[in-house]
Q: What sequence folds into this?
């Protein structure tokens, strides 16, 4: 099946009891057993739930993977994956990582004996320098949040597998509509389903997809044991969102291109971060591993003053100032004080994330209205 057909049909099936075409919300905590230990495949909803099962199958199908697991949030996915490790193990990750991932790495797991290295991953030589016999995971975001740096997934997979490590790719920004990391060598693909996959800013959830059966069993054990699982109502909402993923992502990409080009030509804008520009670092890699360049854009005003950025954010009307991204509505944010506030200022600046950087999640509104909103806010 082509992607649009998969988004609507793959991984889901009509309810066998009633024929309902939409997956029912199985709002139950437990299931009747015919005899002790004999059931219809479900015994307790932390372990399995029919609504969640169909969502997991649907996400796996979209990623061209075998197995999916859904969690109560994207951070619950991160927590589960890092729990594969033991004290003394090492992780290599990008130096402009999402703030929530950086926080759980450095504040939760580093004190438990897991060592994290944060390096600029646009150059695989920097990654290779940190590889040791203790390296167990290489953790990739591409495009990164919020500088939209591009990391070569295939090259990262080669480095990871040479070291006997797993490659994890956070595919939240791209979604499987734009790239499928498993096909490029990734071992685990993860998502914050809260963002583009759900797409309507009405649910918080995460997921991961793997091909390896043994790896699935380890992760499913952690999912069940630690209990960070989503409820069926939220699973239903994401299942509904997935059915229009291809339509939304196409519009996000079209609008994203128009906004990026508008900002690049604006006399008050110093720099625009968007991987679709030929001069963007690793644009050639993005063109090779992505099908389009997405709707996430960051930019810096001339003068690079935080007060100027805040003034623009306060004037924006359609680009609502709010945390998160990937909904049908356009959002704006100030990473230094919002999504990446947990990263020390010195580390942010070292990675190139200035205090005046503005991040846009370009929605699916009419592009003329979005450009008019930017124009009146920037002046």
A:
């Amino acid at each position: 099946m082509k992607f649009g057909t998969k988004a609507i049909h793959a991984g889901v099936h009509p309810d066998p009891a009633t024929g309902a075409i939409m997956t029912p919300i199985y709002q139950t905590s437990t299931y009747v057993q015919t005899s002790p230990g004999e059931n219809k495949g479900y015994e307790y909803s932390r372990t399995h739930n029919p609504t969640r099962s169909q969502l997991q199958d649907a996400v796996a199908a979209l990623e061209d993977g075998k197995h999916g697991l859904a969690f109560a949030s994207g951070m619950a996915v991160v927590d589960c994956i890092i729990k594969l490790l033991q004290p003394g193990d090492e992780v290599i990750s990008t130096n402009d990582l999402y703030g929530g991932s950086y926080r759980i790495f450095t504040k939760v797991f580093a004190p438990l004996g897991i060592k994290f290295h944060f390096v600029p991953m646009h150059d695989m030589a920097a990654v290779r320098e940190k590889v040791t016999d203790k390296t167990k995971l290489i953790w990739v975001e591409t495009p990164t949040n919020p500088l939209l740096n591009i990391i070569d997934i295939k090259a990262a997979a080669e480095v990871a597998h040479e070291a006997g490590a797993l490659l994890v790719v956070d595919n939240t920004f791209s979604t499987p509509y734009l790239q499928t990391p498993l096909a490029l060598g990734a071992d685990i693909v993860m998502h914050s389903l809260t963002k583009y996959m759900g797409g309507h800013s009405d649910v918080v959830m995460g997921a991961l997809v793997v091909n390896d059966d043994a790896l699935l069993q380890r992760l499913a054990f952690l999912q069940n044991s630690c209990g960070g699982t989503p409820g069926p109502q939220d699973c239903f909402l994401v299942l509904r969102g997935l059915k229009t993923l291809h339509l939304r992502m196409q519009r996000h990409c079209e609008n994203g291109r128009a906004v990026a080009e508008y900002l690049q030509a604006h006399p008050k804008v110093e720099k625009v971060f968007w991987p679709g520009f030929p001069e963007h670092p690793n644009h050639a890699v993005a063109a090779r591993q992505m099908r389009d360049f997405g709707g996430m854009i960051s930019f810096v005003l001339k003068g690079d003053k935080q007060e100027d950025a805040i003034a623009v954010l306060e004037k924006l009307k359609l680009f609502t100032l709010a945390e998160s991204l990937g909904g049908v509505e356009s959002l704006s944010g100030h990473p230094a004080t919002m999504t990446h506030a947990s990263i020390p200022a010195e580390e942010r600046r070292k990675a190139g994330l200035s205090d005046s950087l503005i991040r846009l999640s370009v929605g699916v509104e009419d592009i003329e209205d979005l450009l008019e909103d930017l124009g009146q806010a920037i002046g």
Notes: Residues 245-265 form the longest helix (21 residues). DSSP finds 14 helices and twelve strands in the chain. The chain has a mean pLDDT of 95. The two ends are 47 Å apart (CA to CA).
